[in-house]
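My main concern about presentation is that the manuscript never shows what a single data entry looks like. In essence, backbone conformation is discretised, so a fold becomes a row of integers matching the chain in length. An entry of this sort, consisting of the sequence and the corresponding backbone structure tokens, reads as follows:
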Amino acid sequence: MRNFCTTVFSTVTSCLIVLNVASAQTTEKPDLSKQPTLYVVGYAHLDTEWRWEYPQVIDEYIRKTMEDNFKLFDKYPHYVFNFSGANRYRFMKEYFPADYARLKTYVDQGRWFPAGSSMEEGDVNAPSAEAIIRQILYGNDWFRKEFGKASAEYMLPDCFGFPASLPTILAHSGVKGFSTQKLVWGSSAPGGGPQSIEKTPEGTPFNVGVWVGPDGEGVLAGLNPGGYGSNIDTDLSQTLPPEPPNPAIDDLQKKIGDLQRKLQLAQQNGQPFDQNDIQQFATLRGEQGDCTYTTLVRTKE
């Protein structure tokens, strides 16, 4: 498999480079059963405020993000680009109205995607759940008003850690996907390591999977896209070996599913919840978390 190197951060959840270079600039869709194809999407990571101030962000970083990508759009007919943060688009509209109008045409063409769902790629450790929800509410509301479409994913490539409640918050905010590359910098999360099924970095539970929150809601999560400028040099077309059976988890999932259906039926019929059922549901959720932790540790060992 060819080795691809990209100088921009690329996420597993939103991709756009084709392995077969000859077919990269054609409109024909590959037969994925016969032509393993890797898609990657260009993405420019920007800390709106870090070791610089807003005048430099606006006049240099925001402006160049537009100008440089406009050149790539002209050069490559099938180039696609993601950029997050409704606040950054607000800067574009206010300070570069002509370029912003051009950008909107690329959005209409499906070549430039307003991404991330939020106003900024903000921290999610210290802020409350309400603050994260407001990021999504205001961010996607701005996207809808300006572009007629909202994001379906939450991108936090540079946030130092994520709470267990994040997938629950995202799912209930209408977000379907999540991606980061920060865990590869180092993580204390249980799982991962050279002995894990996917041989992910230590502390990265999986490459791509469903991240489930404490209430059972979840999002599709890409946790290991590599670093900002990393290479792709493995055969991603190979399937993973099946996970070893775990009767304890299977039994818990059945009990949780049965109880969840019972509670949903009571809700549909307008009946009050049985407090014993609610307590049992919480207890089973806790046991499920313990079982999952044990499985991750054993997999790592």
Observations:
- The longest helix spans residues 275-300.
- The mean pLDDT is 83.
